[in-house]
User: What shape does this take?
Amino acid sequence: MIKNIAIVGGDLRIVKLAEMLRKEDYQVKTYALEKATQIQDTKVDTLEECVKDADIVLGPLPLSTNEQLINAPFSEEKVQIDELINQIAGKTFIAGSVKQEVYEMAEDKDITIFDILKREELAVLNAISTAEGAIQIAINETPKNLHGNNVLVLGFGRIGKILSKMLDGIGAKVACEARKTTDLAWIKAYGYEPINLIELKENLNRFDIIINTIPYTLLNREMLQEVKKDALIIDLASNPGGVDKQAVKELEIKFNWALSLPGKVSPVTSAEFMKETLLNMFKEINNE
Assistant: This one.
């Protein structure tokens, strides 16, 4: 039975999640979150004390931004990933964007690791917040209404589908790029303009806003040279992103690499989504 939860590091989503878990009657201890005044009474002084009696250890989303230290914006503590792994031997660890190197560190320490961002239910729910955040950026960084603007969404996965629907709902002229014939058919069925990947280059100069959801460098220098000089590009893809950063800078195209939008634009809602997912995971761990 899972009752004691240790939380190490994290952003405002994790702070809100800690509050929610306490309301669900879980015993919560936190470390590297001392600046979060809402959960001061959960704070302990050492990492060892935090994780010692934990049934589950929760880490940040993403676990790290530099592959060495735990992501901990609410702390002055510098928690090394390998230090955390050494302290949680024999336990279950849940975090986000866990790199292969971390799994390898944990191999001989009997640690069970779950990457919560790979859970389908959370990925779908987070896509809502990501799409809303992208639209917020587009509104703030363009001098015209989105209504009537030509907007291209690159990729038709979870985020692409939800984002396209939202953009269409506010009156944007939406086109979606895809390479699979089935996706192109669905794009057409939804009433958006389908653009095959092989025809992308010749169509780029038609769009006022381009939003990328594909996690590989699709918009390389050759592609970027076709983009209108006054266009806005928003990249929603995780590191290394889908846009050639050096080329977009040299070509002086307005660009926003919008990482971790759920935590920035809707931390409370994101925490609720995380809580729902965690409770599902706890049931599975308990074989309920």
Summary: The mean pLDDT is 95.
